[in-house]
Specification:
alpha+beta; Diaminopimelate Epimerase, Chain A, domain 1; 17-stranded mixed beta sheet; 4 helices; 17 strands; globular; Diaminopimelate epimerase; cytoplasm; EC 5.1.1.7
């Protein structure tokens, strides 16, 4: 039996189990154990699990697992929560530089619970008659709808995620409704295989597709089931975007000990 000291964080309802692994003390964790820890009935309960790892060249390294136990692509809300946790652990000076599976990231703290996370540049957006498809650290299918609250996100999202094109690698699926000067986004996440309260890379993808044609800086307010986020970016070409920032809350829910076999 192994003892784990964990922290539970959430960013607009997207929730994560986090462990300080800078000394490698949790390197023994298996995919099955990650899945058990994320289980909402028999474990701690979370959309994913992250390890704060040591890095020679950065303030820290981010290792992210989906709730199915598999190491996954970039998670935007996860990156914001891990930055807030690293700050709590005394890492950095409020400006954090870290490495994740999709490359380098920068994060800044605005108070104790608000994190601005710089995302990777986007240099291609596929636009079909009824959808957009792009990669913001994770792959995202974006579909605009008239009434986002009426969408059956689980059924419709699953149908797209497992269709002939995406079944092998999977994709996240976002349903988007414009409102006032922003958007409301609901997301089906691969690896969780269900709707989550929020998805950082999905919100980022949706905000980019919402931008006008003009090459300038954009600020897009985003509503999710779990709360409000903001995406800032610059359109630099017909299908290219840079200086992309995902901004929003990242909050410690609780910490504790758990024993795992």
């Amino acid at each position: 039996m192994q003892q784990i000291h964990f922290y539970k964080y959430q960013g607009t309802g997207n929730d994560f189990v986090i462990m300080d692994n800078r000394e490698g003390q949790y390197d023994w964790l298996t995919n099955e154990q990650v899945n058990e820890l994320c289980d909402r009935r028999f474990g701690i309960g979370a959309d994913g699990l992250m390890l704060l790892n040591k890095s020679e060249d950065y303030d820290f390294a981010m290792k992210y697992y989906n709730s199915d136990g598999r190491e996954s692509s970039m998670c935007g809300n996860g990156g914001r929560c891990l930055a807030a946790f690293a700050h709590k652990m005394g890492v950095g000076d409020g400006n954090l530089y870290f490495i994740a599976v999709d490359g380098e990231h920068e994060a800044t703290m605005d108070g104790a619970n608000w994190v601005n996370l710089k995302m990777q540049d986007v240099d291609f957006v596929e636009q079909g008659p009824l959808h957009y498809y792009l990669n913001t650290g994770s792959p995202h299918f974006v579909k605009y709808v008239e009434d986002v609250q009426a969408v059956n996100v689980f059924d419709e999202g699953r149908q797209i995620r497992y269709n002939e094109r995406f079944a092998a690698e999977g994709t996240n699926v976002n349903f988007v409704q414009p409102f006032e000067n922003g958007i409301f986004v609901r997301t089906y996440e691969r690896g969780v295989e269900d709707e989550t309260y929020s998805c950082g890379t999905g919100v980022t993808a949706a905000a980019i597709t919402f931008a006008g044609k003009e090459e300038k800086e954009y600020v897009v307010p985003v509503q999710t089931l779990g709360g409000q986020l903001e995406v800032r970016f610059t359109r630099t070409g017909e299908r290219s975007f840079s200086n992309i920032w995902l901004c929003g809350p990242a909050t410690l829910v609780f910490e504790g000990q758990i024993t795992i076999g």
